[in-house]
């Protein structure tokens, strides 16, 4: 391989807003067999809005607005897009945000903290399970939300489920075409997400992806990439802290420009515009470059 052609292509790529962080990425990209996308912030806009707050068993004297204020007080410390949505919703309702202690962010799970002397947990079913919180009374509600493509968020106080919130996050306008173009290039496309199974399926249907792995923790995402590697080279495309392990394991890690610092630092290529359609352009460029060299 002549380094000059690769340099020329890297320059061309940079003009298109594609930055190579490792020299070998272009060669590896040429023969990518599977592209695995993260969902939230990668195929979706990553700007969720809170659509529902459904009480399950609110403690006496705590209104829905007050609870939203408590949730936002904790989420204010998290950089997750869902956290930002919760804070915006609380502000829109004029809720008061109290002081919180013992804040913990658990990537891929949610957040926990102490508020007004009580243990508040906000996040996935798996987070609730890890705290021994029973979800039975909310099952039907959660399934209806998830089938509508919304992400259910469990809210527990002192190890009791008190409410379920939902956030909706629109699919990026270019996502479906990006998937179709990769298929036309002969590349297999899959999605891996920490989100609820039904929510994940709804987004996958909207963009035309049939292989979906849901409710995946950050280490599960990396494990999924490894499993796909039995088919050939795998590119992983993601934007979050939770995507860093998968970006590291993939043959080519592709981060979106607006992503978390750790995602960008772990990636081989950065798509500055955050457009999933950049992936097929990258593969096209890689193939053209390597053809030139031979
Ligand atoms: P994705 O894989 O879709 O990018 P994440 O791994 O970041 O999603 O998160 C997985 C799930 O964990 C989210 O769908 C959400 O239910 C929950 N979660 C993560 N962070 C938070 C948070 N700060 N507040 C509430 N829920 C959260
Ligand atoms: Mg993401």
From TrEMBL:
What is stated as this protein's family in its record? Answer: Belongs to the cation transport ATPase (P-type) (TC 3.A.3) family. Type IB subfamily.
The species is Chloracidobacterium validum
Q: Which residues of the full protein are shown?
A: 413 to 706 of 769
UniProt keywords (A-Z) are: ATP-binding, Cell membrane, Membrane, Metal-binding, Nucleotide-binding, Translocase, Transmembrane, Transmembrane helix
Q: Does the keyword Transcription apply?
A: no
Principal cellular location given in the protein's record: membrane
Q: Isomerase: present as a keyword of the record?
A: no
Judging by the UniProt lineage, the source's domain of life is Bacteria
Q: What is this protein called?
A: Copper-translocating P-type ATPase
In which compartments does the protein localize?
Cell membrane; Endomembrane system
């Amino acid at each position: 391989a002549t380094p000059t052609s690769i340099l020329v292509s890297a320059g061309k790529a940079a003009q298109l807003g594609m930055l190579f962080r490792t020299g070998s990425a272009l060669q590896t990209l040429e023969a990518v067999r599977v592209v695995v996308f993260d969902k939230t912030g990668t195929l979706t806009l990553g700007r969720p809005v809170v659509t529902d707050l459904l009480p399950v068993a609110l403690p006496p004297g705590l209104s829905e607005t007050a609870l939203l204020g408590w949730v936002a007080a904790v989420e204010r410390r998290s950089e997750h897009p869902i956290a930002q949505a919760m804070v915006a919703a609380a502000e829109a309702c004029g809720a008061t945000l109290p002081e919180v202690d013992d804040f913990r962010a658990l990537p891929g799970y949610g957040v926990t903290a102490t508020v007004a002397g009580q243990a508040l947990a906000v996040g996935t079913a798996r987070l609730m399970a890890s705290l021994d919180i029973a979800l039975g009374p909310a099952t039907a509600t959660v399934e209806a939300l998830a089938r509508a493509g919304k992400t259910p968020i469990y809210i527990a106080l002192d190890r009791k489920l008190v409410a379920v919130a939902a956030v909706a996050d629109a699919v990026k306008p270019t996502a479906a075409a990006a998937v179709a173009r990769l298929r036309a290039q002969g590349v297999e496309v899959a999605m891996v997400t920490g989100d609820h199974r039904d929510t994940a399926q709804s987004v996958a249907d909207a963009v035309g992806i049939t292989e979906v792995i849901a409710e995946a923790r950050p280490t599960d995402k990396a494990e999924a990439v490894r499993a796909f590697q039995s088919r050939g080279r795998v590119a992983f495309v993601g934007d979050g802290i939770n995507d860093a392990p998968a970006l590291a394991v993939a043959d080519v890690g592709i981060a979106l420009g607006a992503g978390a610092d750790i995602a960008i630092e772990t990636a081989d290529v950065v798509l500055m515009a955050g457009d999933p359609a950049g992936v097929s352009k990258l593969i096209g460029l890689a193939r053209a470059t390597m053809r030139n060299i031979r």
